[in-house]
From TrEMBL:
Species this chain originates from: Paenibacillus phytohabitans
Protein family membership: Belongs to the folylpolyglutamate synthase family.
InterPro entries cross-referenced by the UniProt entry: Folylpolyglutamate_synth, Folylpolyglutamate_synth_CS, Mur-like_cat_sf, Mur_ligase_C, Mur_ligase_C_dom_sf, Mur_ligase_cen
Domain of life of the organism encoding this protein: Bacteria
Every Mur ligase C-terminal domain range: 311-437
Name of the protein in question: tetrahydrofolate synthase
Record PROSITE patterns: FOLYLPOLYGLU_SYNT_1 (PS01011)
Reactions mediated catalytically: (6S)-5,6,7,8-tetrahydrofolyl-(gamma-L-Glu)(n) + L-glutamate + ATP = (6S)-5,6,7,8-tetrahydrofolyl-(gamma-L-Glu)(n+1) + ADP + phosphate + H(+)
EC number in record: 6.3.2.17
Key words, A-Z: ATP-binding, Ligase, Magnesium, Metal-binding, Nucleotide-binding
EC class: ligase
Length: 458
C-alpha cells in the first residue's frame, strides 16, 4: 500500500527504481486506444506539447530505424533533438532521449512525482486510470516541453496512429514507414483497416511522407491526405532510391527526390534499411525546403553513415557470429531472410526465436523455415509469451512444404539455456541468429554484451 499524506495523495516517490516500478504498475490497465485521458492530463499540465515541433512516425516496421536516421542527421546538423521511442532495449530511460542521451534518472523521478497526483486524480474519475504508455507519453512531453526544450522531437507512435496516445500532437511532418500485418487484434485484419489507423496521424495541412507499397494501403493514405489537404510524398512516385551497392561495409545508394538527388551511405544492413533511409531523407528534404532547416550535405551524409539502431541486424559476436534482429511479424521475417546474405558466406544457419502470443507465427515461419538448418524455439521472459511447444507445432505443420530437408527443431523453454545451446552448436564458419520479440532480443543482448543493469519492457 502506498503511504498517504495528510492531503490525501500518495507521498512522493524517493528513487528512480520506485518511479519506474510505479509506471510499470499501470501495465495491467493494458492498451486502451483513445485520447481522452491524455488530453485531460495535458489540460491539467497546461498543454506543454503545444510548445514543441514534432516529427510523428508511424508504421508497422522501420519506425525505430527511421527515428534513428532522423535523430542522428538532425543532431549532426546542429539541432537539439528529443527522441521518444518504444519498446526499449536496455533501460527504461532509453525511450526518452535528448541529443541521443537518456533522460537522467533524477529528472525522471522529479517528473514522475509531478505526474503521479494527476494520474491518481484522473484514475478516480469516470475515465479510469491512465495506462503505462499514456503516462510514459506524458512524461516525454513534460521532459521536452519543460526541461530540455529541443528544437525538434522525433516522436514514435506506440500502436497504430489514429487512437494512439502520441496522436495528441500536431507535427510539422507525419511519417508512415509502411503497413503490414501486426497488432491485427487492435488495428484490424486487413491492410486497408491497418492503413486507416496509421493514416490517422496525418493532420490538416501537415505534409506526410510514406514508403507504403501496397495499392490498397496507398489508396487509403491518398484519400486521407486529400481530405486533410496535406501533401503526401510517396515512395515510388515522389521519391525513390537506386544504384544500390556495397562499399567498404556500407550500403551505397542514390536518393532521388522532388527537389534534388543525393548519394548516401548507411552502415545499417538490410534492403529494408534503404527504404527507411530514403523515407527519412524525404522528411529532411521537406524540413529543408519548406521549414528553413539548415541541413548541409556534409552533415546529412555523415549523419546517415553514423546511424545505428540496437537489435536490428546487429552483429554482437564473432566466435560464433551472432546476429540479433527484432523481426517479429511476417514482413520483418521476409526482410531478415533477404538481408542475411549481406553478412557474407556462412555454413549452417542456426536460429533462436521466441515470440509473443498475439503474432502471425505461421506467416513468419514461412519466411524463416526455408533458410535455417537448426531452429531453436524458446520463450521470452514476458507475461504474453508464446508457448514454445505451440510454436513447434506450427513449425512442424509447415515442415514438409517450406523447410530444408534436414531441418532440426529444438524446444528449450528457458531462453538462457537456449542461448547457450545456440552458441554451442554454432561453428566459427556458421551463422547464429536470434530473432522474434524485442523482449527476447533485450535479454539476449544484455547477456552477450554483459550489461548487468539492463531492464526491459514495453
Amino acid at each position: 500500500m502506498e503511504e498517504i499524506t495528510r492531503s490525501g495523495s500518495a507521498a512522493p516517490l524517493s528513487s528512480y527504481t520506485e518511479a519506474v516500478d510505479w509506471i510499470n504498475s499501470l501495465i495491467p490497465f493494458g492498451i486502451r486506444p483513445g485520447l481522452e485521458r491524455i488530453e485531460l492530463l495535458m489540460e491539467k499540465l497546461g498543454h506543454p506539447h503545444r510548445k514543441l515541433k514534432f516529427i510523428h512516425v508511424a508504421g508497422t516496421n522501420g519506425k525505430g530505424s527511421t527515428c534513428a536516421f532522423l535523430t542522428r542527421v538532425l543532431i549532426q546538423s546542429g539541432y537539439t533533438v528529443g527522441t521518444f521511442t518504444s519498446p526499449y532495449i536496455t533501460k527504461f530511460t532509453n525511450r526518452f532521449q535528448y541529443n541521443g542521451i537518456d533522460i537522467p534518472e533524477e529528472t525522471l523521478l522529479e517528473l514522475v512525482n509531478k505526474l503521479r497526483p494527476l494520474v491518481q486524480e484522473i484514475a478516480g474519475g469516470e475515465l479510469g486510470s491512465p495506462t503505462m504508455f499514456e503516462v510514459s507519453t506524458a512524461l516525454a512531453i513534460l521532459y521536452y516541453g519543460e526541461v530540455c526544450y529541443p528544437d525538434v522531437v522525433v516522436w514514435e507512435t506506440g500502436l497504430g496512429g489514429r487512437l494512439d496516445v502520441t496522436n495528441i500532437v500536431t507535427p510539422v511532418v507525419s511519417v508512415i514507414t509502411n503497413v503490414g500485418h501486426d497488432h491485427t487484434d487492435v488495428l484490424g485484419d486487413t491492410l486497408e483497416l491497418i492503413a486507416g489507423e496509421k493514416a490517422g496521424i496525418i493532420k490538416p495541412g501537415v505534409p506526410a511522407v510514406s514508403c507504403v507499397s501496397q495499392p490498397e494501403a496507398i489508396a487509403v493514405l491518398k484519400a486521407k491526405a486529400a481530405s486533410t489537404r496535406s501533401t503526401l510524398y510517396l515512395a515510388g512516385e515522389d521519391f525513390s532510391y537506386s544504384g544500390v551497392e556495397l562499399r567498404d561495409g556500407y550500403q551505397h545508394f542514390t536518393f532521388q527526390g522532388p527537389f534534388r538527388s543525393l548519394e548516401l551511405d548507411i552502415a545499417m544492413k538490410g534492403e529494408h534499411q534503404l527504404e527507411n533511409a530514403a523515407g527519412a531523407m524525404m522528411v529532411l528534404e521537406v524540413l529543408r525546403q519548406y521549414m528553413a532547416f539548415m541541413l548541409e550535405d556534409e552533415d546529412v551524409l555523415e549523419g546517415f553513415r553514423g546511424t545505428f539502431w540496437a537489435g536490428r541486424l546487429e552483429e554482437v559476436g564473432t566466435s560464433p557470429r551472432i546476429i540479433l534482429d527484432g523481426a517479429h511479424n511476417p514482413e520483418g521475417a521476409e526482410s531478415l531472410a533477404k538481408s542475411l546474405p549481406q553478412f557474407g558466406p556462412y555454413g549452417k544457419l542456426n536460429l533462436l526465436m521466441g515470440m509473443l502470443a498475439n503474432k502471425h507465427h505461421e506467416s513468419y515461419l514461412k519466411h524463416i523455415l526455408p533458410i535455417v538448418d537448426t531452429l531453436i524455439l524458446t520463450e521470452p521472459d514476458f507475461r504474453k509469451k508464446m508457448d514454445a511447444e505451440d510454436l513447434q507445432a506450427i513449425a512442424e505443420s509447415l515442415r514438409n512444404k517450406y523447410a530444408k530437408e534436414n531441418l532440426e527443431i529444438i524446444v528449450e523453454r528457458n531462453w538462457g539455456q537456449a542461448l547457450h545451446l545456440l552458441q554451442t552448436i554454432t561453428a566459427d564458419d556458421d551463422l547464429a541468429v536470434v530473432s522474434g520479440t524485442l523482449y527476447l532480443i533485450s535479454d539476449v543482448r544484455s547477456t552477450l554484451l554483459r550489461q548487468p543493469d539492463s531492464e526491459k519492457g514495453w
